[in-house]
Design goal:
294 residues; 80% helix; single chain
Length: 294
């Protein structure tokens, strides 16, 4: 029977950190998007109030601005952004360690099952200890799931050629496809938001020129300016262009590593190969994380 490995086959710490990271990422972007939308609506109501002079619009605008202030304070205090990246760092570290263990790569090449299992579990404890800020955020799943699943044991028990073929298909190929797909997605999104910014700036310029011709007409130039600033803030938060370049570079690096495979004659060579691959997989995330916390 062909062995398949899915997310739930990795250690409970990986699953918990991964879910926590995804949850906090969603909270962060929902917070940013809500802030920008409310800011734009408040600016629009302020513009409209200058025309119709309705006191209630001033009250609504004030409430909306208060809401945007509350969102800023919430993002500052709860720090979903930090938890998102710390969780991702833990998840990726655990996943890399898991693949090394399954492939019998250094430092898990020993045949002594008891010793190598203990070593792996101690490494997971170290990863968690180094990220104490996540404790209480990743839930209880890390403590109730087995650190080593039956699937992981099955893969480790394969002979070297079978492990190599499994790693090539399930790890290298999957990672190359994932990074390639993400690079294309972020490139498209970056281009989309770029043209939205161009459109809003062009509209603002047109309205300014119209205002010269018709000085008595109040054009929503300030509202358009807020909209353009909001789009720029969103672009800076999502960082599509940087992610596209980073993912594309990693995808090409993975393809080159895969092309270097000629033959693996012993466990030592295989271990070195696994380590090189895992370093390539984690390099993009490590560099991106470092840029985020600068």
């Amino acid at each position: 029977m062909e062995i398949e490995i899915i997310e739930k086959d990795f250690p409970g710490l990986y699953q918990s950190a991964d879910q926590s990271s995804i949850k906090e990422q969603q909270k962060y972007f929902i917070g940013i998007a809500t802030y920008l939308v409310l800011l734009f609506i408040a600016a629009s109501l302020t513009y409209y109030d200058d025309i119709v002079h309705e006191p209630v619009l001033k009250i609504v605008s004030a409430i909306l601005f208060l809401a945007t202030l509350s969102i800023i304070i919430w993002l500052r205090v709860s720090k979903p952004h930090d938890i998102w990246y710390n969780g991702r760092a833990v998840a990726e570290s655990v996943k890399t360690r898991s693949w090394r263990w399954m492939m019998k790569a250094h430092p898990y090449e020993l045949e002594d099952n008891t010793g190598v299992i203990k070593h792996f579990i101690n490494d997971l404890k170290t990863i968690l200890t180094q990220n104490e800020s996540l404790i209480g955020k990743i839930g209880l799943q890390a403590s109730v799931e087995e650190p080593i699943s039956n699937t992981m044991i099955q893969i480790r028990n394969l002979d070297r050629n079978e492990r190599f073929e499994f790693y090539r298909l399930k790890r290298i190929t999957n990672q190359a496809l994932w990074y390639s797909k993400k690079a294309k997605f972020n490139k498209r999104q970056g281009a989309l938001w770029f043209w939205v910014t161009v459109l809003l700036h062009s509209l603002a310029i047109i309205l300014l020129l119209c205002n010269i011709q018709h000085p008595n007409i109040k054009f929503p130039i300030d509202v358009i300016a807020v909209g353009a600033s909001s789009v720029l803030t969103w672009i800076q938060a999502k960082k599509h262009n940087e992610l596209s370049s980073s993912y594309s570079l990693t995808a090409h690096e993975i393809v080159l590593i895969r092309a270097e495979i000629v033959s693996i004659d012993n466990e030592s060579d295989f271990s070195d190969f696994i380590i090189n691959c895992e370093n390539a997989f984690s390099r993009e995330h490590t560099q991106w994380f470092a840029r985020k916390i600068e």
